[in-house]
Amino acid sequence: MAIIRTKLCDLLEIEYPIIQGGMAWVSTAELAAAVSEAGGLGIIGTGHATPDWVREQVRLARSLTGKPFGVNVMLRSPYAEEILRVVVEERVPVVTTGAGNPGKYLGELKATGVKVIPVVASVALARRLARSGVDALVAEGMESGGHVGEIGTFPLVPQVVDAVDIPVIAAGGIFDGRGLAAALMLGAQGVQMGTRFMCAAECTIHPRVKEMIIKAGDRDTVVTGRSTGHPVRVLRNKLSQQFEELERRGAPPEELEKLGVGRLRAAMVDGDVEYGSVMAGQVAAMVKKVQPAREIVLEVVQEAARLLASASRWVVSRE
Amino acid sequence: MSIFERVKAIIVEQLGVDESEVTMDASFIDDLGADSLDIVELVMALEEEFDITIPDEDAEKIRTVGEAVKYIQDHI
């Protein structure tokens, strides 16, 4: 069986260069462990969760898999610092960070051997973090779900690859072997996928959310909250319409933030797909079924290997 | 050129704002419309211009043009 192996696999001690993106209220220990068991790297999403919850999740993941997994820390969480301490205490092998610059925590994390992989959406932040000694970077395009930047994956990834000399992981808009093959050609050493893993059998989100993703079409996601400075890509529903209406009226950021409070949990845990925040990327439209994490991981690497092995047919020599 | 003048030139270039808006009191986020990624770029540009290193712990305390100028004065 032909598969794909890159430097990222050696760095993270995983079999395949596929990382499951950390998603708050979505990627709990069950999903993360399943992805790690399948040979990728599962990541527990923490969002605004408490340090105690994170510790429980880490221990649960450890009881489900002996393979490496990670924790994603959302740096705007009031608990970010305490969660990073849990990561260190529990000897979690990998931490990814979102929503900011983890620079000031790097010293301690590096000293204890935690591999640090920040998610970036700009070249300047990528350069700055590479300089301060992070192990790899996720370059995430605006096709992704949840909090997004402004640059698409195709232009972002090669620019970040050119700017740094550490492994770059492409994220945003990646769904299958075609996406992995393309990402490798852009210079990435692997991919991070979130939305596709939301419909993994092991993902604990409410079934109504999985159903909504499976039904989604190509134009069914929308970015709201640009006026607050923290734009988020979600599946369109009553809540996103309310957001758009408030933004059209020029409502102050506080009012918009208030509307968003608790809405992610309402969607993912309680299944409120009308008034909940159903964060998902543009590839939601490509998700057609619920399938085990292992099947997803193997499908992606095998398809990419097949495509790349046959890619030389495009190359012809000319006199 | 004074430090303020050099800082101002970088801010005008990076943030695309008018020179007149760049006063010592101006806040990067509230007055000059910068977002967190703009600030990263600005910090990198200031490091390059003045040949200094601004650690993240310090960078996050710099909120206004005046604070940037003062930081640079103290560190070059």
Question: Can you put this structure into words, describing what you see?
Answer:
The complex is a heterodimer of chains A (319) and B (76). Chain A has 319 residues and is of the alpha/beta class. Chain A folds into two domains: 7-204 and 289-314, TIM Barrel (Alpha-Beta Barrel); 207-282, no CATH class. Chain A has helices spanning 7-12, 29-37, 51-64, 80-89, 106-111, 123-131, 153-163, 177-185, 195-198, 207-215, 238-248, 253-260, 263-268, 293-310, and strands spanning 18-20, 42-45, 69-74, 94-98, 115-120, 137-140, 146-147, 168-171, 190-193, 221-224, 232-235. In chain A, the strands form two sheets. In chain A, strands 1-9-8-6-5-4-3-2 form an eight-stranded parallel β-sheet. In chain A, β10 (221-224) and β11 form a beta hairpin. In chain A, α2 (29-37) packs parallel to α3 (51-64). The longest helix of chain A is centred in the C-terminal third of the chain and has 18 residues, at 293-310. The two termini of chain A are 37 Å apart. Chain B is an all-alpha fold. Helix content of chain B is 57%, strand content 0%. Chain B has helices at residues 3-15, 36-50, 56-59, 65-75. Chain B starts with a helix and ends with a helix. The model of chain B has no long low-confidence stretch (mean pLDDT 92). Classes of the chains: A alpha/beta (319), B mainly alpha (76).
